[in-house]
Amino acid sequence: MRKVAIKILISSMLILGVQYVHAQIYSTQDAIIKEYGNDFARDTTDSGNEYLIFQDKQETDASGEYDRIRVMYFYYIEDKDMKVCYQVDYIEPVSEINSWIKYFNKKFVKSDKMEWIDYEDNISFTVEKENLGDADVVLVKSRVYSDE
Known about the structure:
It is built from three helices and eight strands.
């Protein structure tokens, strides 16, 4: 049921023409590839949804120069014959965690210890500290929000 509700929400947002500044949520896969280029890896989740992995150089005072990983997940909307982004994950050095938290605190409604919601565009954000074996990273997830 949740999957159906999210697909309906994405279809509705496409009809309304919602554009989101921070994430690529609600963008089509074609538009994202046009914006970020063809240098990406492609794979499929266990549930059959396709995702793309992009890597780009970033430089900040907190971390210096590093490679940011951006993973974008897509639903296929059959009646529109398109793939639409429903989740974007960012993987960055853990030293970026404070910047993310400050940004979310300023822009969105805090709903939990490390979760924020943009009710206007129905997007939730979470920030998690993870260990990838050789390094601590911050994992930032932005996804279509549904309170079901």
